[in-house]
Design a protein that fits this description.
Oligomer: single chain
Helix content: 10-25%
Number of strands: 56
Number of domains: 5
Radius of gyration: 31 Å
Shape: globular
Length: 903
């Protein structure tokens, strides 16, 4: 019986509020609060975000006197009689419970269930349940995860009848046969009708079965009947093992294409309902995600049931993180202090006992970023005795004595490749050649966090995936992270940590997801879906090649569709087993051929026709159409700048080297902060002058210089304008640096250019864009796999990505031509030679740079068009390695060519 719903509620400023648990206590004057919820999201107190720091002094196990405390009361009837168990699925951070005035006990471990046997206390009618919840407790020292601090009864409260206290489903698989044993307290009979199974608990039998995997999540439904109770079962047969340094499931290697998932909703925090959890799972499946690391605590149990049903590999992580002890030099860190052993063991045991029957759970994780300590050996030993069927992960102890995986976070591409070759350097604190070092190199490698998805990015996802698939050692990787942790603000916008007046403060570091807080997919999620798509499609020499990247499934559940212009058709799907390849001839060809692999039939997570993967063949682009030479008819220059094309007014173009920094440009702290170097030399405040204008034959040559105030360095420019027919003009732009741009790194980095190109001011009446190039979404040099080549059209106002912290967005690389139009206005056409990048919007890069909220971006009286020779990549440096050099724009001499025409 659910006890969710409306509860009486009172908030006190400290933990020493007056008594309230007596049944006759009058709570009629109290407020009413929904359960489950967080009281700080219901108008009481405030949410806090500190990232790695504790929000109170590091004084274990003590917490401050100022400890907001919520008192809850609930009246209910229990007409069923018999045994009754009261279960709380999650209370943050500490709860003491009374029933009908009798104290039941207390619990810590916010993301874990706790239960009380109340058989002798519960009455048929008139029961009163009272709960006191403290915001802070000693348990908070074990819960310093990177997320909002959100107190309250935030998961379900239930009263359970029946006799079955525990059951453990052991269901392994080898070579077509499943072996089943169900242990139960009390014992009973297990029935799986589809398999014709009827067997007593504790007995083992082997039958032919189909295995469970994330690709084919085969479940056998049945019941356990014991002492008059019938418990539903969903059995998945699968075996997890590590053999010769590789992770295997059902005897085959697997590769996790995963995400780290916090529980989050902008309105309800971690109090998620079933529909929201299902929405997460469906979005993951539709974007080719096959694995979840439950960062950094066990999720609501319904999420794991959905993973069983829809098919996702799960690394189930315990509710243990002591990251804030880094500010104490790890002195007093609980995993290395005997006084904390029971508390740590309690959390591990509650995770395993709750989640042990889920086939989707294939790895146990001891916790996150908690340093090292002797307790981890005890936690490992307990799990191995209780559940030897799953391997164990723990990343932060670099000896990996208590982990079946080697694991690090945020390596560079070069470091990851060395890891794949088992040639990485020995970690600090480990003796080279020692038994720990030798064992570590033999372990499979799990990349538990990489590709920090903060703001616009991450970049290099295709590069990382290529390395992950190149080495047998890798069993997968998990992007950080699934969803932005924005909270709904009173004005309808979003809060991040920095919007709450509290120190310490993690600022906007909580906005780091592949989904925006409202669960809208970001461009980063689309790029990840393309990087990890389960079929690689390549087209060359009149044939289409298919590489099956599934670990178990062939491609019989997919159909192949081809399109060329307005023509389309279907290709026969060859037999392509898992991890193998095939090719077939194409019946048609064209300048732009696209082949898509789509679902042949409806799946639980998407309808038939859903695109799973795609590939393209793009013919070499011809040079721009030659325009007849002529004079500058209808073209007007003003002090060396193009001012008019016919009756289209133009401001500029001027050299532009600045972009509103993306989060990854800023690095983390002073590490990998490119903006420090950019601002130090003044790239954010360039001014321009014209040095010379002269006519040479049929050309106008404008020489000038761009540079920042207070600096001697600058960029010499030469704009060579040549006329074409119909009022078109071609521009050859040459940029040459002068002065000392610095050979000394600033902030650890030499100066590079954020972008290099032209900025034009155009009439505000332009409203639409059409282009041939990559689209429809934004693309960058290190993040463009998801942007296919084609002809696209969009409203200018729809071409901005609404990142919650305004920053560079909406770029399109490899553009062949662009047309901007508006009602009643002449249009502008830009052609590349061979191509260019472009962004178009109603505010400048400087406006983006100044804004801290999307609501501060107010359309100006111009449309601002950037036509760029290039823009640097995105990277992942907000929590990761520096941007690879090949994706930067070094200071140097550049020449590029574009043309402009009115139409």
């Amino acid at each position: 019986m659910s006890l969710n719903g409306e509860w009486a509620f009172r908030l006190s400023p400290t933990a020493s509020g007056p008594s309230f648990w007596a049944p006759q206590f009058d709570d009629s004057g109290w407020d009413r609060l929904r359960v489950p919820s967080h009281w700080v999201l219901e108008g009481y107190d405030r949410p806090l975000y500190t990232n790695t720091a504790y929000p109170f002094p590091v004084d274990p196990p003590h917490v401050p006197v100022e400890n907001p405390t919520g008192d809850y009361r609930r009246h209910f009837d229990w007409p069923y009689g018999g045994r009754a168990v009261l279960r709380f699925q999650g209370v943050d951070s500490c709860a003491k419970v009374w029933l009908n005035g009798a104290e039941l006990g207390h619990s810590k471990g916010s993301r874990l269930p706790f239960e009380f046997d109340v058989s002798g206390l519960v009455r048929p009618a008139g029961n009163v349940l009272a709960v006191r919840v403290h915001r802070w407790s000693s348990g908070s020292y074990l819960e310093d995860q990177d997320m909002w601090w959100l107190p309250g009864i935030f998961r379900d409260v239930e009263l359970l009848g029946g006799a079955v206290d525990d059951l453990f489903v052991h269901a392994s698989y080898v070579d077509g046969l499943g072996t089943l044993r169900v242990d139960a307290d009390p014992p009973g009979i297990v029935e799986l009708p589809e398999l014709g199974v009827r067997v007593a608990t504790g007995e083992t039998l082997t039958v032919p079965v189909e295995p469970w995997s994330a690709e084919r999540p085969r479940l056998y439904r049945g019941v356990l009947a014991a002492a008059g109770e019938r418990v539903e079962l969903a059995v998945g047969f699968r075996t997890v093992s590590i053999v010769d340094g590789r992770l295997l499931v059902n005897g085959a290697p697997v590769l996790f294409r995963g995400v780290n998932r916090h529980e989050h909703d902008p309105d309800r925090g971690r109090a998620l309902d079933l529909d929201t959890m299902r929405r997460d799972v469906v979005l993951m499946k539709r974007h080719n995600v096959n694995a979840v690391r439950t960062s950094h605590y066990p999720p609501h149990p319904d999420f794991l049931r959905l993973c069983d049903e829809y098919g996702l590999w799960v690394v189930d992580e315990c509710d243990i993180e002591t990251h804030g002890f880094v500010y104490a030099g790890w002195e007093g860190n609980p995993p290395d202090e005997p006084a904390w052993r029971d508390a740590l063991a309690d959390r591990i045991e509650r995770m395993v006992e709750r989640d042990k029957n889920h086939p989707s759970v294939v790895v146990w994780s001891l916790g996150n970023e908690s340093g090292s300590g002797a307790a981890f050996g005890e936690l490992e030993s307990w799990i191995r005795k209780r559940d030897p069927s799953r391997p164990i992960h723990y990343e932060r102890d670099r000896s990996y004595r208590h982990s079946d995986f080697a694991s690090v976070m945020y390596p560079s591409l070069e470091e990851l490749d060395a890891i794949g070759r088992r040639a990485e350097p020995t970690p600090e604190g480990v003796e080279p050649g020692s038994p720990d070092d030798v064992r570590r190199r033999g372990l499979p490698f799990l990349l538990c966090e990489y590709a920090h998805a903060m703001g616009n990015g991450p970049g290099s996802l295709v590069d990382y995936q290529r390395i992950l698939e190149a080495h047998e050692r890798f069993c997968g990787a998990f992007v950080w992270e699934w969803i932005d942790h924005g909270l709904r603000a009173p004005d309808g916008g979003l809060w991040h940590g920095g919007d709450v007046d509290h120190v310490p403060n993690g600022g906007r570091y909580c906005l780091d997801g592949l989904l925006f807080a409202d669960r809208t997919p970001s461009p980063g999620l689309l790029e990840y879906a393309k990087a990890v798509e389960p079929v690689e499609i390549t087209i060359a020499d009149g044939r289409v090649s298919l590489r099956n990247r599934y670990d178990f499934a062939d491609l019989s559940h997919l159909r192949l569709e081809w399109t060329v212009g307005d023509r389309s058709g279907w290709l026969p799907m060859p037999h392509v087993p898992a991890r193998s390849s095939a090719s077939l001839p194409l019946p048609d060809a064209g300048d732009l051929l696209t082949v898509r692999a789509v679902l042949a039939a409806d799946a639980a997570w998407a309808p038939a026709g859903h695109v799973v993967a795609w590939g393209q063949a793009v013919a070499a682009m011809p040079p721009p159409a030659a325009r007849p030479k002529g004079t500058f008819q209808g073209v007007r220059f003003d002090e060396g700048r193009l001012a008019r094309l016919g009756d289209l007014e133009i401001g500029g173009p001027v050299l532009d080297v600045w972009r509103a920094p993306v989060e990854n440009d800023r690095g983390q702290g002073f590490r990998n902060d490119l903006t420090r170097a950019w601002r130090a030399v003044g790239l954010d405040r360039m001014t321009h002058r014209v040095a010379e204008i002269r006519t040479e034959d049929d050309r106008v040559v404008v020489r000038g210089r761009s540079g920042p105030a207070g600096q001697a360095l600058g960029l010499r420019t030469e704009m060579c304008w040549e006329p074409g027919g119909d009022g078109a003009v071609a521009l050859t732009m040459t940029v040459t640096p002068e002065g000392v741009w610095t050979d000394t790194p600033i902030g650890g980095h030499t100066v590079t250019l954020p972008r290099l190109g032209l900025r034009l001011a155009l009439p505000a009446g332009l409203t639409r864009a059409r282009w041939f190039g990559r689209g429809p979404g934004e693309s960058y040099v290190d993040s463009h796999a998801a942007a296919r080549v084609g002809r696209f059209a969009a409203e200018i106002d729809a071409m901005q990505t609404p990142y919650p912290w305004p920053q560079e967005n909406g770029n399109h690389i490899e553009t062949r031509w662009l047309e901007l139009t508006g009602d009643g206005l002449p249009g502008l056409r830009v052609e590349g030679d061979p191509w260019f990048d472009f962004t178009v919007r109603r505010w400048t890069s400087e406006d983006l740079d100044r804004a801290t909220k999307p609501s501060q971006l107010v359309p100006s009286d111009r449309v601002w068009l950037n036509v760029d020779h290039g823009q640097q990549g995105l990277g992942s440096a907000s929590c990761g390695p520096p941007l690879p050099e090949r994706y930067r724009l070094p200071i140097g001499r550049y020449t590029f060519r574009v043309s402009f025409a009115r139409f």
